[in-house]
Write a structure and sequence with these properties.
- 2 copies of one chain form a homodimer.
- Chain A has a single domain, classed as Arc Repressor Mutant, subunit A (Orthogonal Bundle).
- In chain A, strand 1 and strand 2 form a beta hairpin.
- Chain A is built from 7 helices and 2 strands.
- The radius of gyration of chain A is 18 Å and the shape is globular.
- With 146 residues, chain A is mainly α.
- The first copy, chain A, has helices spanning 8-16, 18-33, 40-51, 57-64, 68-80, 102-122, 128-145; strands spanning 84-88, 96-100.
- In chain A, helix 2 (18-33) crosses helix 6 (102-122), helix 3 (40-51) packs across helix 6 (102-122) and helix 4 (57-64) crosses helix 5.
- A two-stranded antiparallel sheet of chain A has the order 1-2.
- At the A-B interface, helix 1, helix 2, helix 3, helix 6 and helix 7 of A face helix 1, helix 2, helix 3, helix 6 and helix 7 of B.
- Chain A binds a DNA duplex (30 and 30 nucleotides) through residues 25, 28, 39, 41-42, 56-58, 66-74, 76-77, 92-96.
DNA sequence: GGCATATAGTTAGTTAAACAACTAATCAAA
DNA sequence: TTTGATTAGTTGTTTAACTAACTATATGCC
């Protein structure tokens, strides 16, 4: 027996990710308002480099759930903005290690504050136990489709 | 006191909509496997036209949470595929009413079945009360940012 | 060593999203 | 009735996702 609890009229918003789109748009607006000249997608790459500088493009693919061409172009654009630098690995010359510039390190605190602000806006009035349950469900959805 | 329950490490997946992206990719693959030559975004426009044929581009903007240029281009591409036709309104000639073709009507049943299948895949093993709660939280997030 | 295979990354082409600037039609108010 | 504002839709530009086809380096096996 299928456990699909969605009436047809509700199917749409789940597939199209109405909520996460709204969150991303709000965060992008905060970046723009703060004069930060980066996209959410670029931020998502920096986000993982702040956690671990010098990881490879392939590792960025895994971390950000993007394919290789997407990461190639995001790194291209981040390089143009002088936020990262590609450094060919000594051991294995196929691999590019991506390193943050000083300029990118400066962005971390400010953008993380804006991201936390955005989540507080989004989750205003939602009890924390519901937030936790929702996170678990979304993780389960992701795992089911992996 | 903020109710942000997200540790920094979890911030990312909420902003980037990992789960909804996975759902959309899975559905796109099902479309491709079935030989259906449409994108998820095109399907989302057809979805609203199946509910009410002949609505305007502006109404499609509201229904799909997209801006006007996005709908202009989606309708362009759907017209090229001969799935819809723009018909200038008699009363108000600024308005295009978008009408489904016979070909598009045929797609409804098949794509809706695939979409329901996808949601069943995604929600496998998630109890229905948790699904309902999750839907409420995501709706609340959307409303908070609207 | 030499050849097949796998891995890392790039390039090309199509579709789409966001924003700004634009045209055309309608409406409203002097 | 003409002028100014509003509404519906289009066009141009940049960024990004996905697929497929590609290059270059590394690995494993004979």
């Amino acid at each position: 027996m299928p456990n699909n609890q969605f009436k047809k009229g509700e199917l749409y918003s789940f597939v199209t990710g109405k909520a996460s789109t709204a969150i991303a748009r709000r965060l992008q607006k905060k970046f723009n308002a703060a004069g930060l000249n980066i996209t959410i997608e670029q931020w998502s790459v920096l986000y993982h480099l702040w956690k671990e500088d010098g990881i490879s493009q392939q590792e960025l693919c895994n971390a950000t759930f993007r394919d290789k061409p997407s990461i190639t172009r995001l790194v291209d654009n981040l390089e143009k903005l002088q936020l990262v630098k590609r450094v060919a690995s000594e051991n294995d010359r196929r691999i590019n290690r991506i390193h943050l510039t000083k300029q990118a390190l400066k962005l971390q605190e400010q953008t993380m504050t804006l991201a936390e602000e955005t989540l507080n806006d989004a989750l205003d009035g939602v009890p924390s136990n519901q937030i936790n349950l929702c996170k678990e469900v979304l993780q389960r959805v992701y795992d089911n489709l992996k």
